[in-house]
Write a structure and sequence with these properties.
This protein has 431 residues and is mostly helical. The protein contains 19 helices and no strands. The longest helix has 29 residues.
Length: 431
């Protein structure tokens, strides 16, 4: 008997088994995708899986350092397992905004208008409309495309950390790319991956400008702020405000100081004006009313929790902020949202609280004098106080919103938790 015959038989048996497995798995995909507005779900899924494979192979030709390509491909494989596997459970249980974005994008009745600043939902619909004019009609393919946007964003934030610390570390890479809320919420069709990309451009620009003083990084900062303003106009204000840390703590040279201060003041004025227009705010009383209305509007669904009373004064807002900001950053905790995803979010947050406590124990006062550390703390603070009103009222939504700041918050905590003997501060690179 030919020696190759047993091998051939095993290959044929494996192929037949794979066909039966795939057929059975596609039946599960069809069953669990009953909320998705797609008639041929099996073909839809296969298109998405092929697209995921193609995008993964494209990493081989990305203009990135060669030693990052293997970790990137491994991280992308894990992300695809979540997007095309674990997320089926989520899509089976919850009719999400992703279905509406997908359906409106391919609708023949869609009326095209140009992108508008602050018009978040409609801008995502316009984006999916343009996408549907170019790519095949596949929900899973569109989801994988949004997942790649989130994937690139997380990688940019990791590279920003490398720029700042001047140190490569695959352990940090995998934590950043595979942190549960990162890998899940950056893989959905919707605002979250798009906002995260804008924040990533901004973070990378800040780290690059801090290290090199090159003006091209200021352009990245501006691009990131501008991009996020198309989805959530108030995020632009959140991103610009912490830059004030660098006014006196970092800038050297008269020209650099004037250029930077001028750009920051112009950007803050532009973002603040659009924020006031979005919520019709003219006085402190208007701000209190807008905060109260926004807070109450999120109190719905199984993960909602009602706040007693209403905001009647600016003092009420100030008293609420510590509780609201803590909720925005560290909740839900185990037992607060009674479903599978609430349980997972609670375990993640409890783990993070423990790591945060460890970081607080290890932090030294000299760490807090570093402008980049001060900037990151200010960014987390401004985000948490802004989102405190919505996040406190709906802990399920809070878990999704947190994607906007968690990569920075996680990076900050890991930096403060480092071994001091192995992480001496390096001087800035000039050039």
């Amino acid at each position: 008997m030919n020696r190759g015959a047993p091998t051939l038989i095993l290959v044929l048996l494996a192929a037949i088994g794979a066909v039966f497995f795939l057929a059975g798995f596609l039946d599960i995909v069809v069953l669990m995708g009953h909320h998705i507005p797609q008639k041929d779900m099996a073909t839809d899924y296969l298109i998405g899986a092929c697209w995921a494979l193609f995008l993964g192979l494209s990493i081989l030709v990305w203009p990135v350092t060669a030693k990052d390509k293997k970790p990137l491909m491994l991280a992308w494989a894990a992300k695809c397992v979540v997007a095309l596997g674990f997320m089926l459970i989520y899509e089976n249980h919850y009719p999400t905004d992703a279905f509406a974005y997908y359906e409106s994008g391919k609708s023949e009745f869609f009326t095209w208008e140009m992108f508008k600043i602050g018009d978040g939902t409609q801008n995502i619909e316009r984006l999916t409309f343009l996408y549907s004019r170019v790519f095949p009609d596949s929900y899973h393919m569109m989801k994988i495309s949004f997942a790649m946007i989130g994937f690139i964003a997380l990688y940019l934030i990791y590279r920003a950390g490398v720029l700042f610390t001047q140190k490569e570390d695959n352990r940090i890479f995998y934590v950043m790319m595979l942190f549960p809320s990162h890998i899940f919420w950056s893989s959905i069709i919707g605002k979250d991956p798009v906002i995260l990309l804008g924040i990533a451009l901004y973070v990378y620009g800040v780290a690059g400008w801090y290290r090199t003083d090159k003006y091209r990084y200021l352009a990245l900062i501006a691009l990131g702020i501008f991009e996020t303003s198309f989805i959530r106009v108030w995020i632009a204000t959140i991103l610009i405000a912490p830059l004030s840390i660098f006014f006196l703590a970092r800038i050297r040279g008269v020209l650099s100081r004037f250029v930077f201060i001028g750009l920051v003041l112009f950007g803050f004025g532009w973002a603040h004006q659009r924020f006031k227009q979005r919520f019709n705010i003219e006085t402190n009383e208007d701000l209190v009313t807008a905060a109260d209305v926004t807070s109450q509007s999120w109190a719905y669904g199984g993960s909602a929790q009602l706040r007693e009373g209403s905001f009647d004064s600016f003092r009420d807002l100030m008293l609420f902020l510590p509780v609201g900001a803590t909720s925005a950053l560290l909740r839900p905790l185990p037992g607060e949202v009674l479903n599978l995803f609430g349980l997972l979010a609670g375990i993640e947050n409890l783990t993070f609280v423990i790591i945060l406590a460890f970081a607080a124990f290890r932090t030294r006062w000299q760490d807090l004098l570093d402008p980049m550390v001060l900037w990151a703390i200010a960014l987390v603070f401004f985000w948490a106080t802004t989102y405190s009103f919505a996040s406190y009222q709906n802990l399920g939504t809070a878990a999704r919103f947190k994607l906007q700041i968690m990569p920075v918050f996680l990076g900050l905590v890991m930096y403060l938790s480092r071994r001091r003997a192995a992480a001496a501060r390096l001087p800035a690179v000039r050039g």
